[in-house]
Specification:
This protein has 8 helices and 9 strands. It is α/β, with parallel strands linked by helices and 226 residues long. The relative contact order is 0.17.
Length: 226
Amino acid sequence: MKFLFVLTSHDKLGDTGEKTGFWIEEFAAPYYYLTDKGAEVTLASPKGGQPPIDPSSDKPENQTEATKRFHNDKKLQEKLSKTLQLSEVKEKNYDAIFYPGGHGPLWDLANDKDSIKLLQSFYESNKPTGLVCHAPAALKNVKTSDGEFLVKGKNVTGFTNSEEAAVQLTDVVPFLVEDMLKNNGGNYSKADDWQPYSVHDGNLITGQNPASSEEVAEKLFNMLKN
């Protein structure tokens, strides 16, 4: 099984002067879940090289078994520092694609032409396509061959408006994931804030928040296995 993980290259949290990037748990938990089962994972980002880590995801209160394992894993840290450039990546070389969140994707992956093309290609080749937390932002401008938004009529989830309000970034982010998915015609649903929740519709799997990341990886794995 060959998985492509797509990470953000964006590190500025709007005009706040703060940093952002990808959320460690949403990368590490799915990565270890899949590689422990023998899957091969390739890492890519719009700019290539080291993708920025969201400093908030490194706070003591956000540590999990997977993030602790990542911090002790020099081999994975080295691999992460050398992500491929998205423009070099071809859908035909992989069986499934996964996007970890963090606030970064709201700025770059939502508008990145290579990412948009890849998501359309994976989806229309009926390959498992997973995105968690803020990463469904990458679906914002993805359309299918018939010109409709990819999420139109699909059951989807993603970071909720109330979770964004809880982290006090509603007025900082360029758009709210929940609102965008609804505006693009998605059948949006959610669980209580911070509870694990993921939705599977065809070959599209979306997760609500960091707690949902391993669940999304599990569903991607089971789709491929079956």
